[in-house]
């Protein structure tokens, strides 16, 4: 640790934080985890390498902080009320070209940088997946999903459909197209939002 | 074109072909499309760069030929008879650690090397997807899938579930685990292999 750095939270330090995380996000989207280096991040952020290393001891921790900042920490919508809200949220993400590239880079990091993928899952994915699973459990309880549905499987199916959309559909699709895709997948797994909500079955 | 190369199909030439494609496959799995170069492939194959370039004018065409060889051309099982055979085939692929890494690299190439992903889809994916779609159409006609199923959606769901499995399950899983996963997904989309086959409904 150098002694020339200011106390955390002081304005210059916060500016450096934002510049570093912004540069890291850009580079991660442009090149992926493997081809991004602390050196490049420092150069693009206009700070020294030492300034980056004082905050992030290695590239993996820098990239985790970058994803954390990109997705919001705490997560922007920690409470997902129902399937409809989940569809709305995923539609926003999957119709945003920048988010699409970011997510494909996260998938690409699984192979080259498994610690990043694992840390990302531990810090964000697991938490959100639990909230989503509960949404599907409630939908099943309300009769909006077949009684023999497995919320874990529904979550795998919907997440997988997201990867498939990212892999096979153009990044120029509209929100309407994305929503139709997600609703077709949910219909195929038996989700029927129009069903009268009477009770558990 | 050099004049020192032998006619195609002569033993030495076939050996060089195999060495080049084998080296390219190894490097693609180890490093991905972006980090693989013709230079590295030549070195690992024990041939000159010129020998590689005489066969493949650029890296993308080399990698397409590599995938073609890895998956078999013509494809090893061009005819997929029914959903059960499809499950058996995918189970083999998804329980093979090397194939898993290869497929994640193919996904990773979408971002860095879209021509490769597109060419791969045009030459292989499209053809196989059509065969799979027909399998789901027949399953629906036989009452093994709900009457309102969309074969395209079922295919997106199953392919997506494959990406999800590759992203979230360890590469050490057994064929039994993979098959249970695929069957759970198919069950969720309404596939009921045990249903009496009486006719269209």
Automatic annotation (TrEMBL), chains A, B:
It comes from the Bacteria. It holds the Pfam family TetR_C_11. The keyword DNA-binding applies. Residues 37-56 bind DNA. Residues 14-74 form the HTH tetR-type domain. InterPro entries: Homeodomain-like_sf, HTH-type_TetR-like_transc_reg, HTH_TetR, Tet_transcr_reg_TetR-rel_C_sf, TetR_C. It comes from Umezawaea tangerina. PROSITE patterns: HTH_TETR_2 (PS50977). GO terms for molecular function: DNA-binding transcription factor activity; transcription cis-regulatory region binding. Keywords: DNA-binding, Transcription, Transcription regulation. This is TetR family transcriptional regulator.
